[in-house]
């Protein structure tokens, strides 16, 4: 039995590898840099966990979101791995110093790209003999670097500073264009690619159009009543709307529902996540803050109340459904106003004449705080204004194309899966009745997505004395 | 749905008055805990210093100025200040009712209740899981410093099981001294063995209470527990307050005042501290705002006679006082900061304002 199989079974207690895991590990064992494009829920974390056990050297994981980092660290700790830490803003100064002083204590170190932009921190990592440099959710380099998280652009420099360690890029969504972009931005020598189909055939794709917001809300409430008692996620692009609809669903249905977004305190995020995992909650009304790293197998439906950012993001978000392989529903609810809202949100990322003037005159305090940070990055890297204008114009064009592709998916007259997978450069030609609505709005067969798990029941209200007694 | 009083609306009503127009930006800055002289001074004038910094504790609860105006509860003056209407004051009275929840402000200003609560929740989770012999669970996500604090607390325990039992008894005693609503709100948030706890929103929904009632009951309950833990050091929760007591005034401000009291010369303080004169006088104003009347040397900077003369020139309405409106003769002998100091003294004498955490 190969060592990786032994580790899989004896240390991690899995019977067999999932598609793509073995191929990726084999390439890593050969010392190659690898881009692994594996479907959502394919067990990407396990790849670097096993590799860490093989090479007995630190694994540095670049992770885009605080919540995702914390989830992964907690999951690894829960499964018995103690040598894991997330170096992020949840650590106070003294803890951070302690971690940085004893980096060699850890086998798995999670950091954000922004953290590595700090020269002092990078210097500490330079002293480590990093065994593997992992970029989780690697598509973020292409999706966010230009106009949102510029420190992703710095990763090639970071790799160089770290002595060009072996690198693993992990993602569930990367078109040919994104793959080329990753190669270009990271300048990795001989990047090998493992591509598994990202198609999730058990997820039924559908879109429903509405004339107005009220009609959309009514439909959603009616549908949810039919989907009882399944678990599901409803995505919103606004925190306020997530709150409003969570309250409305609680009032109008017997589905236990909660909102989840960046405004929640850490303990509240924990509670909602655990309640959802334990089927105390059936529905989460979330912004995209919820999802990356959530591994609940029996999510039966993912509904988008507002538009996703683009088709690759949609592919990623609906991938949180049906991880147990059973039928699950991906439904997008659409009104024409949603497109306007999305256009408005996209336009916020573009540079205005005021931004450009502030850049030229170096008076960055005149622009919005988030843009200040962005422009400072470009200023620090001595990007001329003309070059900056071109970079952002190209990015705006890319976004426009991506948005157009999303609208085409919504107004698709044929197989939606074909369109969705094409956005990730995957062809598909096996449409059947279980695939999608084929561009024709049909009633959702809620029975198909009924849960096999125990229905959530609202726990009876206990007297506070009883709560204390049960706790101890 | 639009006519409902949300927690944001209720908070705004709580912060407004029907006779004193209040500036929205100042209210936002006050809740955010900004410590500029303007924010603290107007916080004092509005009698709202007890709310300073609450935004951090409340997190997602933010002031919303549109809802209440749409409902005719609040009106805007020509200077863009806000005032309660008759309906607004009636609604405010309806909201101030429910439970005797006064008293939390002093606790909030003298103790870091946010971290106390995080430590409390995590400690109870750890002890609950221990009491049931469960070693594999997801610990509550709290600030790193609080996680470390509880880890240290736990590892130093001689007998965790006995401490768990003691903690249970302490909690029963401590919660028993609260109102039923506050005890319920605190207890239902707790996380532990086979209990994921509830968020405040969930508690409000389950009991059919308003979000505002629950938010108040939580703060009141946590403040009460912290006070009990402060007063009775034998309680298992008492060590959780370690390092969480807040000074009455900022340490840098205190240093400036101490130096002044030693040298009785602003110039000397300025030289010692290597600060601009305006920073020194700002420190003194902040000290005057935060300290009890008797603990600040007002007479060294502005005499009662000067204050009476200002009153003569500008009238009794302190909120309308403008330094620029003073006569040239007066302005040549009294700087802006001394003028402001006079207003602070009069405010304190008039309001008999509480100095949270002092004495």
From TrEMBL, chain A:
InterPro entries: DEAD/DEAH_box_helicase_dom, DNA/RNA_helicase_DEAH_CS, DNA_helicase_ATP-dep_RecQ, Helicase_ATP-bd, Helicase_C-like, P-loop_NTPase. CDD domains: DEXHc_RecQ (cd17920). Residues 219-375 form the Helicase C-terminal domain. Pfam families: DEAD, Helicase_C. SMART domains: DEXDc (SM00487), HELICc (SM00490). One of its GO terms (cellular component) is replisome. It comes from the Bacteria. One of its GO terms (biological process) is DNA repair. SUPFAM superfamilies: P-loop containing nucleoside triphosphate hydrolases. Residues 25-192 form the Helicase ATP-binding domain. GO terms for molecular function: 3'-5' DNA helicase activity; ATP binding; DNA binding; four-way junction helicase activity; hydrolase activity. NCBIfam families: recQ_fam. This is ATP-dependent DNA helicase RecQ. The lineage of its organism: Bacteria, Bacillati, Bacillota, Bacilli, Lactobacillales.
From TrEMBL, chain B:
Residues 252-341 form the Helicase Helix-turn-helix domain. It comes from Fructilactobacillus florum DSM 22689 = JCM 16035. InterPro entries: Helicase_HTH. It comes from the Bacteria. This is Helicase Helix-turn-helix domain-containing protein.
């Amino acid at each position: 039995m190969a060592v990786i199989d032994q580790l899989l079974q004896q240390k991690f207690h899995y019977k067999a590898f999932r598609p793509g895991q073995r191929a990726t590990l084999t390439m890593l064992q050969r010392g190659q840099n690898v881009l692994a494009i594996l479907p959502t829920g394919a067990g990407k974390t396990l790849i670097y966990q096993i590799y860490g056990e093989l090479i007995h050297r630190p694994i540095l994981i670049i992770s885009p979101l605080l919540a995702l980092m914390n989830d992964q660290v907690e999951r690894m700790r829960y499964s018995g791995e103690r040598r894991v830490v997330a170096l992020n803003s949840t650590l106070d100064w003294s803890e951070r110093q302690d971690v940085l002083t004893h980096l060699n204590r850890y086998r798995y170190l999670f950091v954000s790209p922004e953290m590595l932009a700090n020269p002092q921190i990078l210097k500490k990592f330079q002293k480590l003999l990093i065994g593997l440099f992992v970029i989780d959710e690697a598509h973020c380099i292409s999706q966010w670097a230009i106009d949102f998280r510029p420190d992703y652009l710095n990763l090639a420099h970071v790799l160089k500073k770290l002595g060009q360690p072996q690198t693993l890029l992990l993602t569930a969504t990367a078109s040919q264009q994104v793959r080329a972009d990753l190669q270009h931005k990271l300048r990795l020598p001989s990047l090998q690619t493992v591509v598994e189909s990202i198609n999730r055939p058990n997820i039924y794709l559908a879109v429903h159009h509405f004339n107005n917001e009220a009609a959309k809300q009514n439909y959603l409430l009616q549908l949810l009543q039919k989907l009882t008692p399944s678990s599901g996620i409803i995505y919103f692009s606004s925190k306020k709307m997530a709150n409003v609809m969570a309250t409305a669903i609680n009032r109008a249905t017997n589905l236990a529902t909660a909102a989840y977004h960046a405004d929640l305190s850490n303990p509240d995020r924990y509670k909602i996540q655990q309640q959802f995992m334990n089927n105390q909650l059936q529905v989460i009304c979330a912004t995209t803050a919820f999802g990356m790293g959530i591994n609940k197998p029996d999510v039966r439906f993912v509904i988008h109340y507002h538009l996703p950012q683009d088709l690759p993001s949609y592919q990623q978000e609906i991938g949180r459904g049906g991880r147990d392989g059973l039928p699950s529903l991906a439904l997008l609810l659409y009104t024409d106003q949603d497109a306007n809202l999305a256009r408005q949100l996209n336009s916020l990322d573009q540079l205005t004449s005021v931004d450009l003037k502030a850049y030229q005159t170096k008076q960055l305090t005149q622009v919005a705080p988030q843009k200040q940070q962005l422009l400072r990055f470009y200023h620090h890297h001595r990007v001329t204004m003309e070059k900056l204008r071109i970079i952002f114009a190209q990015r705006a064009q890319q976004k426009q194309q991506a948005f157009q592709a999303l609208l085409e998916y919504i107004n698709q007259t044929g197989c939606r899966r074909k369109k969705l997978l094409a956005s990730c450069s995957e062809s598909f030609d096996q449409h059947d009745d279980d695939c999608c609505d084929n561009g024709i709005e049909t009633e959702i067969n809620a029975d198909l997505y009924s849960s096999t798990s125990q229905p959530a029941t609202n726990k009876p209200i206990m007297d506070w004395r009883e709560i204390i007694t049960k706790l101890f | 749905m639009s006519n409902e009083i949300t927690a944001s609306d209720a908070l705004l009503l709580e912060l407004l008055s029907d006779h004193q127009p209040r500036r929205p930006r100042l209210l936002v800055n006050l809740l955010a805990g900004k410590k500029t002289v303007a924010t603290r001074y107007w916080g004092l004038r509005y009698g709202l210093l007890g709310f300073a910094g609450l935004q951090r504790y409340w997190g997602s609860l933010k002031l919303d100025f549109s809802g209440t105006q749409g409902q005719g509860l609040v009106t805007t003056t020509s200077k863009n200040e806000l005032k309660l209407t008759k309906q607004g004051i009636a609604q405010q009275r309806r909201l101030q009712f429910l439970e005797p929840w006064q008293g939390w402000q002093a606790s909030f200003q003298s103790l870091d209740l946010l971290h106390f609560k995080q430590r409390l929740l995590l400690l109870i989770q750890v002890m609950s899981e221990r009491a049931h012999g469960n070693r594999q669970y997801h610990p509550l996500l709290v600030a790193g410093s609080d996680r470390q604090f509880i880890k240290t607390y736990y590892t130093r325990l001689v007998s965790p099981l006995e401490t768990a039992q003691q903690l249970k008894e302490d909690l029963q005693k401590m919660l028993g001294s609260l109102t039923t609503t506050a005890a319920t709100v605190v207890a239902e948030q707790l996380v532990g063995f086979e209990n994921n706890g509830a968020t405040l929103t969930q508690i409000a929904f389950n009991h059919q209470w308003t979000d505002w009632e629950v938010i108040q009951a939580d703060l009141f309950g946590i403040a009460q527990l912290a006070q009990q833990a402060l007063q009775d050091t034998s309680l298992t929760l008492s060590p959780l307050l370690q390092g969480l007591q807040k000074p009455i005034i900022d340490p840098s401000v205190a240093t400036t005042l101490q130096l002044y009291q030693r040298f009785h010369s602003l110039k000397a303080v300025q030289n010692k501290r290597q600060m601009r004169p305006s920073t020194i006088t700002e420190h003194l104003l902040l000290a005057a705002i935060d300290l009890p009347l008797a603990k600040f040397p007002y007479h060294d900077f502005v005499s009662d006679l000067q204050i009476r003369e200002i009153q003569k020139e500008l009238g009794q309405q302190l909120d309308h006082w403008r330094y620029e409106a003073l006569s040239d003769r007066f302005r040549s002998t009294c700087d802006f900061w001394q003028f402001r100091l006079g207003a602070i003294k009069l405010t304190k004498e008039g309001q008999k304002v509480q100095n949270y955490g002092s004495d």
